[in-house]
Specification:
Strand 4 and strand 5 form a beta hairpin. This protein has a domain of 68 residues. It is 24% helix and 18% strand. The strands form 3 sheets. Strands 3-7-6 form a 3-stranded antiparallel β-sheet. A two-stranded antiparallel sheet has the order 1-2. A two-stranded antiparallel ribbon has the order 4-5.
């Protein structure tokens, strides 16, 4: 897999920017595959609703994987960002790597000691000698 090729195209023949000062440019790059939310969820092994929950948590900075805060980058089209969600395949691979668990070393446990009955009594049992 080679380096991405990025081209810049001038689209100044369209409407000017909000400020109307500079021509607008569009960067067209070689992205990896853009996945729909259903495809991304399937690759992660979760349902689409869980993915939407993860995206919502990521937006407010509350999404955590294995104790590390994680931000998920995604694209959302449509007017005012209300369109369909697309996620880059590389982002899915990054999440899978973050979720990967490597087993730690196990330590041999000591065998529990047999405890005597009535541990809370610290004096000698029987009638007091007066």
């Amino acid at each position: 897999m080679g380096l991405p090729v990025i081209t810049i195209e001038n689209v100044s023949d369209q409407k000017p920017d909000v400020q109307g000062l500079l021509p607008r440019f569009v960067i067209i790059g070689m992205l990896s595959e853009l996945l729909s939310s259903e495809q991304a969820a399937r690759r992660l092994g979760i349902c689409a609703l869980t993915l939407y929950d993860w995206l919502g948590q990521s937006d407010v900075g509350e999404f955590v994987i294995q104790g590390q805060p994680v931000t998920i980058d995604y694209y959302q089209g449509g007017r005012r960002g209300q369109g369909r969600i697309k996620i880059d395949a590389q982002e899915i691979e990054r999440l899978l790597l973050l979720m990967r668990v490597t087993p730690g070393t196990t330590y041999a446990r000591k065998r529990p000691e047999r405890k005597t009955i009535l541990q809370h009594i610290t004096t000698k049992l029987g009638r007091p000698i007066d």
